[in-house]
Description:
mainly alpha
Amino acid sequence: MTVQPMEFRIPQWEMKDRLRKAREDAGYEIGELADALGATRHTISRAEKGLTTPRRSLLIAWAWQTRVPVEWLETGKAPSHDDDGAPVRSSGQWAPRDSNPEPAD
C-alpha cells in the first residue's frame, strides 16, 4: 500500500466574509452593529454581501467595534509583529501620539 502525499487547500475569504465573521464573532446582529457604528442595516448588509465596499472610515469603525485589525478586514492578512511582540502598524493607520506636545527646536 502506498501513501499519496496530502494536498492542502487554504480557503480564501473575501472581504465580505471577513466583515461577517468579525461581526458574528463579536456577538452582534446586523442591526446592533449598524447602531453601534452609526450606519444603517442596509449598509452593513450590503457590505457583508459584497455588493458594496465600505468606506475606510466605516472599516476602521467596524474593526474597532469588533476588535479585529483593520488590516485583516482589508486584506485578510494578520498584522505583523516586531521582535518584542508589539503589532507593527501598517501604512494608513495612525502613528502613536507624542507625549510631548511642544515642538522640538
